Structure formats: C-alpha cells, structure tokens
Description:
globular, Immunoglobulin-like, 7-stranded mixed sheet
Amino acid sequence: MKNFLAFFAFTIFFSCTDNSTLEAYDKDQVPAEVTVKGFSKPDIIQMRLNGEPVSINGATSYTDKIETKINFVLDNGETDELEIYNHQTGNRIAAYSITYNNAKDYKNLYFFNLPGIFLQTYAVKPQVNLGKVGFEFIFPNLGEFSGSSLQNVKGVLKRENGVVLAEFDNIGKKDFTSVKIYNYFSATAPVYLELYKPGTTEPYTGAVIIKATVKQDIGANMIVLQEKMENGVVVVKGDIDVADYL
C-alpha cells in the first residue's frame, strides 16, 4: 500500500511539472538582446522601443557616447519597433523592425549621428604616432547618385604632384577601412582621393576619374565619402571627419 501511494504521488508530481513546462512554451517566443554602441554630437537623441523611451543609467535622452543593452521577448508573428529620434526636434532619425525571425540580425546596433549624416557603423579612433597622418574611409551612399552597383571601390590617395600616399583596396558602405599611415608634410597642401573600380584603373563610374579633395589633419582622419550631384554631375565629397567627434 505504501509503495502504491508513493508511486501515485510521484506520478502526480511529474504530471504537474510536465504541464507547467508545456504551458511556458504554449506560444512560440524568442528572447532578444540588442547591444547598442552609438555616438551623437551635438544632437541629443532618444531611443524608443514600441514608443516607450529607453532608459540608460536613468536618462531617457542622451548625447556623446551611448552604450546599453536592450532586452525583450518576441512572440512568433510579433514586430517590435526600435526607433531613434532627435530629442530636440522630434524628428525620427532611424527605425528598426525586429521580429521573431530576424532578431538575431539585431544583436548589435552601431551608429554615429553627426551633423548632416547618420552612419550605421562602429568605429574606434586609430592610434597614429606623432608626426604621422592616418586615414580611414567609408562610403555609405555609394551608388545613390551615380547608379553604380558596386559595393566597394578602390581609393588612391595622392599629393597635388601625383605622388601616391596610400592605397585602399576596398572602401565600402558599411565599415571603415583599415588605417593607412604616412609622414605628415603640410598644413595647407590638399590631398586627393581618386576612386576606381576594385582591382582596376578604371573610374568607378563614368569615363572620367572621380577625385575627392579631403582635408589632411595631423593624426587620425576618418573620412566619410558622399556622392552628391552638382550642376548635373556626380561628385564625391569628403567633408565629414568622424575623428573630429571622438
């Protein structure tokens, strides 16, 4: 009799355990964790998850370096909206629709919000020795005005007299290139970046080599290249230096 009662209690216990386990997984769910590493200057920004401000160290608006982790759970068929707003103007800067199926694509969110441009990338200011110049490049709107289908271009950095200072085999849309370093030679002389199809000496678009004038500061230069249209002609500008903000 004792053995029967023990067996009966044992059966009830595990039946309850099994039911509670099943109930926890009645609805398909996936945990989401978004690691945010961003930077905004001078604008103050706010991140919102489904319209609710994201708090970082007790603050719901932030500037300069922005780092946090956002954790939530997604049901199958659900879409959560993670948005970035300019806190002062109320304008939406960026939006990300995160679902049960694509949550893994948003494990890391990197961005730079700078005057006139929003970069979805992560970057660290490179170390450049005294008396040297270092350059990194990124080309986020490659093809916007030229219609080029290329995902990256080759860049050749030259002095006015044509002397090559550095070559960059793959300047792409998403990440800064590796840093290339040379000896500093002038505070006033411009340097030029000529742009070609990767692995060739052919212009990356059109028949004429597109040449971007870029500023040359001693130390690190992290230049954002941008296609623009001037008088009906595609040009490339290198006016924004992310290193100025880091």
